[in-house]
Amino acid sequence: MFEYVVACVVALGIGIVAAVIGLGGGFFYVPTLTTLFNLDVRTAMGTSLAVMIFSSFSASFWYRRQGKILYKVALILMPPAILFSVIGSIITRYVDARILVVIFSCVLILVSLEMLVPSFRFLTEIRYGPSFVLSATVPSQQTQPVTRVPYSHLLFWGAVGGLVSGITGTSGGAIFVPALATIGVPVHYAVATSMFTIIATSIAGTISHAALGQISLPFVIVYGIGAALGASLGAVVATRTNDIQVRRIFGVLLFIMALLMIWEQVL
What we know:
By secondary structure, the protein is mainly α. Helices cover about 70% and strands about 5% of the residues. A two-stranded antiparallel sheet has the order 1-2. The chain is globular.
C-alpha cells in the first residue's frame, strides 16, 4: 500500500510538469516505473501510455476551457500519429530496448537544443502541397499571430510523433510541441494542442501494448489518479508562464531525461 501511495504522489508531480510543457508525462513515467518500482522497460512503456490517457484527458479539459486547443491541427496530426503509434508498439517486440533508448535519447537532445538555442534547427519546416491559414490570440501579448500551416508538415511530424510514442511509451509530445512551434504556432497553443493529440496516440499505443501483455494494471490505476490530478493543476499553472519560460523548461527537462534514460537503461 505504501508503494502505491508513493507512486500516486510521484505521478501527481509528473502530471503537473507534463501539462505545463505538453509532453504527456511519458518521459518521466517510464524512468520512474523502471527505477523506483522495478517494472521491465516494455511493461513500463505500455503502462506509461495507459496513464497518459488520464493525464491528457484531464489537461485537455482545462485547456479547452481556456480556448487554447487548435482542433483542426490536432485532427490532422491524429491519423498518422495513431497509425505509427501502433507500428512503434509492435517494433518494441522485435528490437533490443537499449537500441531504442539510445536512438530516442539522441533525438531528445537535439530537440532540447532547438528549444534552448534559438539559432539551432532540428525539426525543419515541411512546406509541400496545400496549406491553411491559422490564427490564435496570445493572451499575455494581446496579439493575433497568423501563420500558414502546410498539411504535409502536420502529417509528417504527426507520424514521427506517433512512432516515438509507440516505441518509447511516451506521448509524442516531444515532437508535436516543437514541430508546431517551428511553423509559428504560439507555444501555449502548441502545448494545449499536443495534449489533446496525445489522447488518441495514448489510446492506440495502450491497446497495442495491452495485446502484447505489456501493461501493469495496478500502476495504471495509481499513476492514473495522480497524473489526472497533476495535469489539472499543471494546466492552471501554465497560464502563469510565458512562451520563453515554457520553451526553456521544455528544453532543460528533455535534456535531463535523455541523459537519465541512457544512464539507467543503457550504461
